[in-house]
């Protein structure tokens, strides 16, 4: 039965979305995660490593009392600091970082000393995080700091470049996964990746010959599970069986294991430990007392195997129960009672964000810092010294600072204790357009190898619904592995477990410690898990789940605690861990969504925020696992008795890039994917501070326009304020034949008036270095021509200070900075003995000018002279080019319909349009959304308003047609067009109207390349490769085959030898070896030596063969005897 | 060949100019032909005599002025081939010369707008100057003379308004923060000061925004306007656009009465169909087909689409010329005719020299 309620007008639900985006979502997850790290996590890291003791002096100790991360600043001179803005860091190539300070208590001699606010290093600060200067600033204040208020933040600035720590996708930690063994099919195993602060390890329970084994890296051999149980103190076979399960099927499966245990004559815990002790891989342990095998085994079981399961005072009960459950899962999966887990299921994934990654790195560096201090203490204390040992003097800041900065700026994340060594964790924030920057912040990279040809991890998983954008993924090798977050996704941070444990026990969960094996596996009970650890069992699991949810909605426990039941596992899973994906839903009670129109009204009046909706229990967050436990209705009309939640807005399943597309639900799916890739290459605006930036490459549009057909997403992400494209009037017709294969025909008058006109900014930078021998670079004024008394042509753009002046025109090979460098930089000047720097040597300079290279001239926009943190002068020049579209420039609409300009036509030959698009682009691509966009824009233009093309909604074609009719246009959008050439009407009506077009960054000017003669490679003497090296155009193998097939032998000879690496060699006709200048060294004669031409590569081959003791000989004959 | 040349000569030198100047207000509709395509050869269409006939042409050809304001002109040109009508349109767009800013000498520009963009924007400003009074400037000339160059100066500096209080409106906060065409100051070149009065040479509009400034920023530049063609750059085009359409023709195949008549009326632009009579006696009639925008809305309605025939008259051109304001539209048309005449003259000279 379907109930509908009209209390809540559907159109208004979306207003929750901007409210949500104010507090969570988009890039807030990066910021939340970083905030959590610098405010909470860093303190617990400090707590875990708080004491430093010395082996040399039992009385010595140092204890951390507190740790803080300050506000970003910069050291200006000795011990003077001043706050710094992110933009200054960008311009001056500095790192945006804040000091990490600690309070410590330590002993100096016999004194106990407390010192506060000691710096131990610097932490790069994420923009817009709680410690960033931009936090809580108004747009006007941001403008003062040269910062764009629309900029998302969430990235770091290291050494002047903006770096994003990409979201990393991983399989969840501390969770059992039952799956087929990799490599062997049909063999089921259960694996757990245990992860604690100290250690990361993976434990397997696998089957071999119908017996179960415990597999782990520390054991050189697989351990039979029964022996493992006995080693954990479960000596009784009956107890083992009871723990695993006493069903008939389970019983029969375990029997062989027990049998084997008996065969090995292992009956007691000691015997078992001895057995395991022989299999433990010896760990290289320096120092410490030697351990017995039994101790080693016990410690391995205690610390390493399933390390996330706590063992208190050698009580292995919990770990044994956990192991038993793993065995049970394998048995059940073998009997197909329970489906094996799906690795690609998104509930089994966790996302690692900047905060988590940095905390791993920081803990590693902090431990290293502490061990270094300990080492120094051990070494220094025994030595007799005048001054007492003061550890504070040995605290060096650079280790932590450099460790963090280098990791972020290179992207190499190496963490010793986890043996983790990942490259490419960070990337330079792409500032091609606003969308490309925003798209990068929502990107998720998978740990999966790109080269593997498996479809599972790449394909769209149903559980990704609403969490990840179904359209935004790259094409090619990373397809499906790089994903993007949807609009409303939030990623959780770690939460405190203690209150949840207390709550669970209060709600009747029975602690596993007090239960027998029989009770654990009883069919009447459900096992309760918290973050992958067994908490206990419960009979009335419904009550538990319901109460936890009630408490969460009432705000007594955190809103990100998730609880869900798995009936096939007979388990209740409670999660509070970080990295889970979740998104908000409206709660439905008794077929009635709790959010009513009055709430929305209050929201739009500003009386309410999104958090109020959460606190009042109208809206809640569901993670992927809990979603599976709920009945979620997409629309109100779909609400039934069973419905528990209501979607806020369906278009939020798309991400930021796909959100730009008008009517994406009418397009063929791959077209939306193509547009997601192209939107990132579109030129336009990159931020309100774009003109203050000095980027290596910056593309801007002269006259950017907001799209006529908008979407809700466009408004939410401010794309209409920072647009990248222009509304071009398009005629869909064929014209001239220069429009085949998606080529576009552009109107010359439109280009004259500024359509597609763009600005290209390029950076040129120099640093004035100071060398080891106290010499330094210098800038010289321009060279003056003696006759004209004007600077020579090369220096004509230079100012008197030797740096190019702003607004000067710079042509190819002209000098931008007339820099001179000392010829001797390494050796010390012999100044020491005379006591005065020798004047002569300091005058030896050579010219190292910075010249401009480019086919087209540029203008100097601005020159920045500053100093970088190394106290060296830094000169940055921003060069500008203005380009009008030309033939070969690339354009695209927002529907994955790209094309290059094929022809530019004078306006009198054209219909009254900016561009003409060939209709053949439509049938095979099926981008109906583009047709609808045209209608929407046309109707919008006539009424002077913007229409909406929001996904799964938007203005209806019917209404748009009605608008057209009202204005006297044809309802289909087709118009009567006269040919500009003949002056007669065309035979067809033409689909005619504005479509938002993007100019893409690929322009002919940057790609054009030709070469007559030029540089050659040193080794082979063949022309170099590539445009950047002025290389030749290769006549490849296949082209060669064509010429051979055709029989053009002289052409072949010319292309492959004469125009490439032709070389004259002297060959001796007698011995067939190469000679030199008419003389054969082998025959000691010049009688038979003749000169012939061959490719240099051929000659090289001969000589290389000779060097390997192979003598290639040529047989020569006069040409008339062949 | 001779006949074709004759045609042009007769027609252009004979009637055209005279008829344009003193044409009757509005004539009856001429229903000559309804085929879309012109004939490349006479006799293509059966039952239609399209062979050239000077007398017939002179009798049928007509130009009616419909509407004229200072920058817009609508006139009908009836009884002529599409090729000729199109030639006027093309010439208006591309070949009637005007004066426009071509060279910009920037002495100082500390504004946010880039030099090239500023120059581009300046170029597109329509300059009120009669191009007929000026010569074309030779390409290697950089100085310019009084005969071929108009010079303007733009010198603006934005300052803070010290009297502004409690406001965030930039109009109040700053002085001269909007650089518009009114800031362009004419500077006489050579003897221009004697020939032209103040205000003779100026931008057409004085409220076109060129750039925005903030206190301390300034623009100081001089520009040279030269004579040029629209085909070189759109800024030289004297018209915003010049276009023509064919006169629509609506034929009611059967009498349409009652509610259907009302529906029919709704399908067309206002004033196209009128309904006479009352009650069930209502009858639709075509009042003024000219007003129709040709939306073909009737064809959507199954009950109406077979009762109406929509067509256009193939030699009745409704011209619309929108001037940029540099010259009045009627002068533009006159100029266009002169351009075509001189082209014909050149062509005939070439021909006579060739033979």
UniProtKB/TrEMBL annotation, chain A:
Its cofactor is Mg(2+). It is found in: Cytoplasm, Cytosol; Nucleus. Its main location: cytoplasm. It catalyses: RNA(n) + a ribonucleoside 5'-triphosphate = RNA(n+1) + diphosphate. Residues 657-1029 form the DNA-directed RNA polymerase subunit 2 hybrid-binding domain. One of its GO terms (cellular component) is DNA-directed RNA polymerase complex. This is DNA-directed RNA polymerase subunit beta. It comes from Pinctada imbricata (Atlantic pearl-oyster). The lineage of its organism: Eukaryota, Metazoa, Spiralia, Lophotrochozoa, Mollusca.
UniProtKB/TrEMBL annotation, chain B:
It is found in: Nucleus. InterPro entries: DNA-dir_RNA_pol_30-40kDasu_CS (IPR001514), DNA-dir_RNA_pol_insert (IPR011262), DNA-dir_RNA_pol_RpoA/D/Rpb3 (IPR011263), RBP11-like (IPR036603), RNAP_Rpo3/Rpb3/RPAC1 (IPR022842), RNAPI/III_AC40 (IPR033901), RNApol_insert_sf (IPR036643), Rpo3/RPB3_RNA_Pol_subunit (IPR050518). This is DNA-directed RNA polymerases I and III subunit RPAC1. GO terms for molecular function: DNA binding; DNA-directed RNA polymerase activity; protein dimerization activity. Residues 72-350 form the DNA-directed RNA polymerase RpoA/D/Rpb3-type domain. Belongs to the archaeal Rpo3/eukaryotic RPB3 RNA polymerase subunit family. Its main location: nucleus. GO terms for biological process: DNA-templated transcription. CDD domains: RNAP_I_II_AC40. Pfam families: RNA_pol_A_bac (PF01000), RNA_pol_L (PF01193).
């Amino acid at each position: 039965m379907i109930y509908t309620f009209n209390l809540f007008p559907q159109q208004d639900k979306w207003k929750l979305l901007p409210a949500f985006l104010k507090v969570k979502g988009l890039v807030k997850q990066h910021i939340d995660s970083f905030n959590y790290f610098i405010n909470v996590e860093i303190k617990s890291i400090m707590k875990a490593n708080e004491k430093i003791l010395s082996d040399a002096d039992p009385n010595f100790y140092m204890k951390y009392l507190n740790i803080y991360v300050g506000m970003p600043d910069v050291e200006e001179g000795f011990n003077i600091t001043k706050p710094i803005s992110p933009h200054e860091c960008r311009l001056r190539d500095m790192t945006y970082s804040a000091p990490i300070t600690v309070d410590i208590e330590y002993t100096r001699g016999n004194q106990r000393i407390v010192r506060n606010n000691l710096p131990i290093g610097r932490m790069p600060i994420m923009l817009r995080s709680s410690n960033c200067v931009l936090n809580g600033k108004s747009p006007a204040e941001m403008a003062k700091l040269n910062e764009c208020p629309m900029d998302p933040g969430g990235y770091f600035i290291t050494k002047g470049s903006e770096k994003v720590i990409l979201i990393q996708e991983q399989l969840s930690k501390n969770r059992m996964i039952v799956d087929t063994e990799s490599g062997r099919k049909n063999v089921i195993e259960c694996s757990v990746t245990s992860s604690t602060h100290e250690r990361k390890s993976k434990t397997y329970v696998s089957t071999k010959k119908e017996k179960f084994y415990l597999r782990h890296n520390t054991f050189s051999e697989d351990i039979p599970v029964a022996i493992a149980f006995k080693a954990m103190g479960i000596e009784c076979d009956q107890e083992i069986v009871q723990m695993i399960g006493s069903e008939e099927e389970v019983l029969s499966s375990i029997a062989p294991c027990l049998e084997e245990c008996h065969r090995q004559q292992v009956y007691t815990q000691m015997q078992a430990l001895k057995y395991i002790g022989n299999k433990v891989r010896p760990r290289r342990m320096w120092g410490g007392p030697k351990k017995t095998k039994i101790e080693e085994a016990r410690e391995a079981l205690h610390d390493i195997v399933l390390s996330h399961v706590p063992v208190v005072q050698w009580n292995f009960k919990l770990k044994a129960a956990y192991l038993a459950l793993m065995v049970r899962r394998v048995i059940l999966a073998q009997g197909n009672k329970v489906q094996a887990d799906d690795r690609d299921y998104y509930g089994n994934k966790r996302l690692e964000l900047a905060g988590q990654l940095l905390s791993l790195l920081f803990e590693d560096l902090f431990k290293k810092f502490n061990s270094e201090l300990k080492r120094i203490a051990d070494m220094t204390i025994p030595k007799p010294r005048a001054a007492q040992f003061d550890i504070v003097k040995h605290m060096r800041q650079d280790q932590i600072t450099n460790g963090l900065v280098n990791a972020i700026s290179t992207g190499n994340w190496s963490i010793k204790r986890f043996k983790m060594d990942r490259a490419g964790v960070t990337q330079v924030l792409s500032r091609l357009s606003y969308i490309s920057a925003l798209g990068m912040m929502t990107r998720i990279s998978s740990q999966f190898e790109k080269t593997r040809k498996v479809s599972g991890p790449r394909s769209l998983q149903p559980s990704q619904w609403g969490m990840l954008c179904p359209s935004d993924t790259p094409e090619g090798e990373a397809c499906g592995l790089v994903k993007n977050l949807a609009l409303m996704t939030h990623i959780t941070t770690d939460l405190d477990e203690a209150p949840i444990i207390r709550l669970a026990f209060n709600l009747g969960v029975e602690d596993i410690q007090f239960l027998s094996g029989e009770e654990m596996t009883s069919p009447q009970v459900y096992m309760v898990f918290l973050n992958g650890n067994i908490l206990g069992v419960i009979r009335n699991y419904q009550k538990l789940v319901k109460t936890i949810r009630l408490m969460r909605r009432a705000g007594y426990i955190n809103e990100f605690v998730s609880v869900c039941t798995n009936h096939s596992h007979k388990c209740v899973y409670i999660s509070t861990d970080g990295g889970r994906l979740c998104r908000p839903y409206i709660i439905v009670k008794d077929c009635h969504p709790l959010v009513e129109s009055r709430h929305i009204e209050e929201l739009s009046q500003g009386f309410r925020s999104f958090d109020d909706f959460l606190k009042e229990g109208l809206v809640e967050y569901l993670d992927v696992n809990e979603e599976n436990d709920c009945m979620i209705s997409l629309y109100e009309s779909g609400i039934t008795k069973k419905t528990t939640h209501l979607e806020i807005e369906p278009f939020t399943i798309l991400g930021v890039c796909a959100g730009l597309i008008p009517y994406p639900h009418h397009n063929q799916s791959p077209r939306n994917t193509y547009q997601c890739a192209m939107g990132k290459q579109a030129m336009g605006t990159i931020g309100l501070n774009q003109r203050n930036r000095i980027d290596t490459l910056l593309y801007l549009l002269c006259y950017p326009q907001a799209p006529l057909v908008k979407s809700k997403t466009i408004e939410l992400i401010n794309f209409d304020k920072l647009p990248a494209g222009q509304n071009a009037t398009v005629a869909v017709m064929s014209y001239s034949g220069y429009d085949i294969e998606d080529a576009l025909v552009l109107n010359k008058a439109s280009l004259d008036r500024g359509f597609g006109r763009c600005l290209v900014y390029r950076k040129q930078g120099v640093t004035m270095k100071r060398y080891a021998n106290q010499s330094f670079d210098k800038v010289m004024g321009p060279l003056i021509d003696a006759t004209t008394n004007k600077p020579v042509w090369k220096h004509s753009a230079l100012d008197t200070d030797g740096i190019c002046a702003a607004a000067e025109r710079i042509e190819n090979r002209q000098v931008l900075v007339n820099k001179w460098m000392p010829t001797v930089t390494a050796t010390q000047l012999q100044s020491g003995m005379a006591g005065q720097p020798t004047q002569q040597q300091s005058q030896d300079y050579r010219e190292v000018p910075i010249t401009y290279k480019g086919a087209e001239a540029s203008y100097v926009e601005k020159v920045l002279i500053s100093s970088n943190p190394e106290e060296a002068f830094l000169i940055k020049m921003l060069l500008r080019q203005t380009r009008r579209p030309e033939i070969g420039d690339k354009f695209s609409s927002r529907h994955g319909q790209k094309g290059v300009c094929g022809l530019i036509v004078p306006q009198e030959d054209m219909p009254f349009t900016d561009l003409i698009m060939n209709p053949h682009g439509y049938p095979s691509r099926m981008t109906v959304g583009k047709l609808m966009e045209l209608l929407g824009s046309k109707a919008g233009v006539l009424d002077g308003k913007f229409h909406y093309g929001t996904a799964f909604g938007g203005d209806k074609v019917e209404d748009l047609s009605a608008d057209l009719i009202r204005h006297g246009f044809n309802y289909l959008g087709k118009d009567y067009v006269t040919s500009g050439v003949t002056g007669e009407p065309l035979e067809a009506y033409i689909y005619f109207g504005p479509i938002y077009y993007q100019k893409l960054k690929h322009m002919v000017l940057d790609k054009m390349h030709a070469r007559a003669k030029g540089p050659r490679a040193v080794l082979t003497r063949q022309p170099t490769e590539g445009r950047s090296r002025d290389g030749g155009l290769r006549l490849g193998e296949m082209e060669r085959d064509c010429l051979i097939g055709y029989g053009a032998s002289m052409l072949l000879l010319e292309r492959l030898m004469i125009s490439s690496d032709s070389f004259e060699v002297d060959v001796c006709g007698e011995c067939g070896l190469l000679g030199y200048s008419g003389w054969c060294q082998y025959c000691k004669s010049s009688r038979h030596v003749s000169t012939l031409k061959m490719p240099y590569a051929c000659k090289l081959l001969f000589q290389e063969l000779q060097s390997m003791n192979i003598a290639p000989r040529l047989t020569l004959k006069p040409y008339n005897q062949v | 060949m001779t006949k074709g040349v004759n045609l042009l000569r007769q027609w252009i030198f004979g009637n055209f100019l005279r008829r344009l100047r003193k044409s009757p207000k509005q004539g009856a509709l001429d229903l000559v032909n309804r085929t879309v395509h012109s004939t490349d050869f006479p006799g293509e269409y059966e039952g239609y005599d399209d062979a050239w006939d000077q007398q017939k042409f002179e009798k049928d050809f007509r130009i009616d002025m419909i509407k004229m304001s200072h920058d817009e002109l609508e006139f009908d040109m009836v009884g002529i081939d599409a090729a000729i009508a199109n030639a006027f349109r093309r010439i208006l767009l591309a070949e009637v010369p005007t004066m426009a800013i071509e060279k910009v000498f920037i002495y100082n520009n500390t504004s946010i707008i880039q030099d090239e963009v500023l120059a581009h924007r300046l170029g597109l400003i329509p300059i009120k100057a009669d191009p007929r009074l000026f010569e074309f400037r030779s390409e290697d000339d950089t100085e310019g003379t009084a005969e071929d160059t108009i010079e303007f100066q733009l010198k603006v500096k934005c300052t803070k308004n010290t009297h502004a209080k409690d406001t965030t409106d930039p109009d109040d906060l700053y002085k001269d923060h909007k650089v518009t065409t009114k800031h362009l100051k004419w500077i006489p070149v050579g003897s221009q000061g004697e020939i032209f009065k103040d205000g003779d040479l100026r931008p057409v509009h004085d409220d076109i925004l060129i750039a925005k400034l903030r206190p301390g920023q300034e623009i100081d530049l001089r520009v040279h306007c030269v004579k040029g063609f629209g085909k070189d750059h759109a800024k030289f085009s004297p018209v915003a656009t010049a276009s023509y359409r064919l006169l629509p023709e609506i034929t009611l195949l059967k009498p349409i009465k009652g509610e259907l008549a009302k529906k029919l009326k709704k399908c067309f632009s206002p004033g196209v169909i009128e309904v006479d009579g009352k009650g069930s006696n209502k009858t639709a009639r075509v009042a003024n087909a000219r007003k129709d925008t040709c939306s073909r809305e009737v064809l959507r309605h199954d009950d109406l689409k077979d009762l109406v025939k929509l067509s256009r008259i193939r030699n009745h051109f409704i011209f619309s010329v929108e001037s940029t304001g540099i010259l009045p539209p009627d002068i533009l048309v006159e100029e266009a005719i002169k351009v075509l005449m001189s082209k014909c003259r050149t062509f005939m000279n070439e021909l006579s020299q060739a033979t």
